[in-house]
Structures are given as C-alpha cells and as structure tokens.
Amino acid sequence: MQSKSGVKIRFLIFVTLVFVFFSAVLSNADYIMMTESTYGFTYYVSSQTLSNGTQAYKWEYGSDYNTTQQQEIYNYITSNYNIEFQVSQGHATVKYNCHSYAWYSQAITNDYWINSPANFLSGSYTSIL
Question: Which helix (H) or strand (E) element contains residue 68?
C-alpha cells in the first residue's frame, strides 16, 4: 500500500507536467489564433514559408467543421455557384483550401492554407480544363 505522501507527490508531479506541456503549447509565439467567420470556433495555425517561397498557414490544433457544418457549406456552394463538377477530396475544412489542394498537395493530410498561388503560377503547369 502506498503512503499518502507518495500519492500526493505523484499527483503533484503529474499536475506539474500537464501544466508545463499546456503552457508550452499555448504560449508558443509562433501560433496564431484564428476564428472561423461563420460558425465562430477557434483554431491555431503557424505561419510557414513553403519551399518555393509561398506564404502559407499550417493548421496546428483546434476545431474544424463538424459533419452538419460541412453539409451546409456543400449545399451553399452547389446551390449558389454554377458548378458542373467538383474536384474534391473530403469535405470543407479549415486545414487547407482550394489553392493548397490544387497547387501544393491533394493528400487528405494536407494542413496548409495558401492565400495566393502566385509562386506556383510562375512555373510551368498543365491546365486540366
């Protein structure tokens, strides 16, 4: 049987480790808190420079759209825009956007949001349309 002081010491060590971990994660100056404009949830990104000089935001942690929100976004896009087909892998996400999907990575693990594809357009590419 463990003594009360042994249990207290283990508990204090556990609490200290949890506090140090979350303090390090939440106080990292490289993380930027973002608030999703329609649904209001928060997530954290870091500013990154990709190998061709493109500025991107890398999703680090936080919320993403739930299945109801993803369906609402899909319904809005397909009913408000003249879209004859969609090139998509998965549903709407705050982790990556169309520029990142088209020019950087089509992987479901893509965590980059690219506001401008200009650096990708300066090289050669093949149009699929």
Answer: helix 67-80
